[in-house]
Design goal:
Layout: E1 13-16, H1 21-31, E2 36-38, H2 54-69, E3 73-82, E4 88-90, H3 103-113, E5 124-134, E6 140-151, E7 167-169, H4 182-188, H5 190-201
Parallel strand pairs: 1-2, 1-3
Antiparallel strand pairs: 3-4, 3-5, 5-6, 6-7
Helix pairs in contact: 4-5
Length: about 200
C-alpha cells in the first residue's frame, strides 16, 4: 500500500496510529477531505506510551504502524499542562487517574486536585498536541499545535472526549470544548492547529 501518489510525489493516503475512538473521529474530519485516511489496523497491539515526551510517544506510535502497514502513518500525542499542578498531567494526560482510567476518572482526579483554586488565573492550562508522520523507510516529520485556556470548576457539555468538558479555551466565548460543535472546536483547538501544520508540511 503506497503512501505516495501522483507524478509530483504528493501524499494522498495515510494510516492513523491512534486507537482512541474520539481521536480517530476528529482526525478523520480534519484530514479526510485532503487524504484517504485508513484506521489503525485491527489486531495490532496498542503502543506502550512510555516516552518522556509527547514527541517520543507520537513517533513511537507512528513508527510501529508504518512498519506494520508499509504505509505513511500518522500519530498524535496530546498533553494537558496545568500551571497550578506543576504542568501535570503533561505526558501522562491519558492515564492521569491510572493506566486503565477512563475520561470520567481522569476529569474527576483533575478537578479534585484543583479544589481550592478559585479563578481562571489559578486554573490556567494549556493543551499541546504533537503529530508525528513516519514513512516506512524511517523518514519522519513532527509538527505541533497549542491552545491556552483554563479548567472549569465542573464539567459542561456532551461533545468531544477526554478533558473537553472542563477545558475553556481563551479564544472561545466562555464555553468548554465539549459545549462546542466539532467545527467550532477544530478552528481553535490544539489538534486542529497541529493537523493544519501537518497538512502544510506534507
Amino acid at each position: 500500500m503506497s503512501a505516495v501518489g501522483g507524478d509530483r510525489g504528493e501524499i494522498d493516503r495515510l494510516v492513523l496510529a491512534t486507537a482512541n475512538a474520539g481521536k480517530v473521529d476528529e482526525l478523520r474530519r480534519l484530514l479526510g477531505s485532503r487524504f484517504h485516511v485508513s484506521a489503525r489496523p485491527t489486531g495490532l497491539a496498542e503502543t506502550v506510551e512510555d516516552g518522556a515526551s509527547l514527541e517520543v510517544n507520537a513517533v513511537k506510535k507512528a513508527r510501529e504502524v508504518a512498519e506494520h502497514t508499509e504505509s505513511l502513518a500518522v500519530a498524535d500525542d496530546t498533553g494537558l499542562f496545568v500551571s497550578a499542578l506543576g504542568d501535570r498531567p503533561g505526558v501522562h494526560t491519558a492515564r492521569f487517574a491510572g493506566p486503565d482510567a477512563d475520561d470520567d476518572a481522569n476529569v474527576a482526579k483533575l478537578l479534585a486536585e484543583l479544589d481550592g483554586f478559585a479563578d481562571a488565573v489559578d486554573r490556567a492550562a494549556r493543551f499541546r498536541t504533537v503529530i508525528a508522520a513516519v514513512w516506512p523507510e524511517g523518514r519522519q516529520l513532527l509538527v505541533e499545535g497549542l491552545v491556552r485556556g483554563h479548567i472549569s470548576s465542573r464539567p459542561s457539555g456532551s461533545s468531544g472526549f477526554g478533558y473537553d468538558p472542563v477545558f475553556v479555551p481563551e479564544e472561545g466565548d466562555g464555553r468548554t470544548f465539549a459545549q462546542m460543535s466539532g467545527e467550532e472546536k477544530n478552528r481553535i483547538s490544539h489538534r486542529g492547529r497541529a493537523v493544519a501544520a501537518l497538512i502544510e508540511a506534507l
